[in-house]
Amino acid sequence: MDTPHQSDPLRRARLRWRARRGLLENDLIFERFFSRYEHDLSDADVGALTRLLELSDNDLMDLLLARKEPEGDLADADVVRVLEMLRTV
């Protein structure tokens, strides 16, 4: 990543806790994602993840499994980049 790194470990920890979902499949994807990328997340990445986590479990699952693509406000470069990272773990 070429963007500045997120320097607030408390904010990352809160985001990781918020990523705990009702669907096991989502939990597994996010656990692998955080294991791989947590310390490399930029402020923009944290913002994009926060926006994704505002979705319902089923809508989020559709995006994670590429059944759907982001639309509207979610179709910005930061969200798309983070979603691609999530899809590769």
Automatic annotation (TrEMBL):
The protein's name: FAD assembly factor SdhE
Pfam short name (any one) = Sdh5
Q: Which GO terms describe its biological process?
A: succinate metabolic process
Keywords in alphabetical order, please.
Chaperone, Cytoplasm
Q: Name one GO cellular component term.
A: cytoplasm
Family affiliation:
Belongs to the SdhE FAD assembly factor family.
Location comes to:
Cytoplasm
Main location, first listed in the record? cytoplasm
Spell out the InterPro entries in the cross-references.
Answer: SDH, SDH_sf, SdhE_FAD_assembly_factor
